[in-house]
User: Which sequence fits this backbone?
């Protein structure tokens, strides 16, 4: 049975090609034009039954997944990759660790969309930089948005390896880009975050200029409080004021961004 592919179907294909692996909830948020998630379950099932999409349950337990069943993940089928002219990929999208990394990056995009819907940020823009865990790309995503009249341009690194000797160079190279003024480092747990902070301090010194350009948080904190309301940390594991509400707040924190005032 053939169906007439519509504009939304092609947007679904484009989003999955960008992220490689997505959950239904991600797709619902990403395609919403009115900042409200939409119900697309039936359409995804039909695209799967007609071999446009591949669908499987994630093999491992994800700590942020709150329902008893493991989530369904969607990828493009070979037929659809050919249809949309998608490049061939070398990633093993059936690998649990790879899937988790890709889904976590998509989660961060969704959390920022939630903050935009709630009026905490505006003019949100997202660029996925890589689909490959531990790749040579500098960051996993680049974002820009406006908060309290200030434009923020951020590179996001999702759970970088503690053993990655090149992480410092990736951070420095990212900050040298004209569209990245700070880097957010997102870890899966407190212990990994603490090891990263300690390792970077050991390699750069306690007075490193990176202290004013790096912010750290864990996935658990972000899922609980959201991207804007989370209490971020700097390289010294102290509060990082990346969303400054007032001059008084800025004075009480040990981290301040280099703001750009948004044009009217």
Assistant:
């Amino acid at each position: 049975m053939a169906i007439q592919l519509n504009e939304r179907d092609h947007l679904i294909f484009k989003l999955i090609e960008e992220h490689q692996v997505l959950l239904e909830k991600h797709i619902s948020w990403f395609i919403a034009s009115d900042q409200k998630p939409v119900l697309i379950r039936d359409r995804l099932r039909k695209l799967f039954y007609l071999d446009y999409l591949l669908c499987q349950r994630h093999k491992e337990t994800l700590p942020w997944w709150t329902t008893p069943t493991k989530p369904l993940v969607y990828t493009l089928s070979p037929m659809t990759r050919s249809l949309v002219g998608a490049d061939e990929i070398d990633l093993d999208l059936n690998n649990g660790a790879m899937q988790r990394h890709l889904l976590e990056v998509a989660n961060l995009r969704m959390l920022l969309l939630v903050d935009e819907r709630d009026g905490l940020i505006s003019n949100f823009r997202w660029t996925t930089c890589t689909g490959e865990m531990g790749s040579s790309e500098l960051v996993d995503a680049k974002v820009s948005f406006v908060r309290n009249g200030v434009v923020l341009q951020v590179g996001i690194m999702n759970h970088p390896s503690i053993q990655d000797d090149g992480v410092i160079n990736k951070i420095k190279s990212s900050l040298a880009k004209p569209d990245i003024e700070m880097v957010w480092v997102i870890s899966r747990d407190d212990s990994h975050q603490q090891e990263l902070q300690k390792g970077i301090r050991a390699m750069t010194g306690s007075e490193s200029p990176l202290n004013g350009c790096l912010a750290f948080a864990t996935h658990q904190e972000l899922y609980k409080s959201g991207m804007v309301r989370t209490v971020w940390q700097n390289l010294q594991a102290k509060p990082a004021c990346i969303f400054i509400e007032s001059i008084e707040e800025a004075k009480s924190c040990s981290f301040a961004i280099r703001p750009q005032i948004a044009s009217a």
Q: What stands out?
A: The radius of gyration is 19 Å. DSSP finds nine helices and nine strands in the chain. The CA atoms of residues 47 and 204 lie 50 Å apart. The longest helix spans residues 96-117.
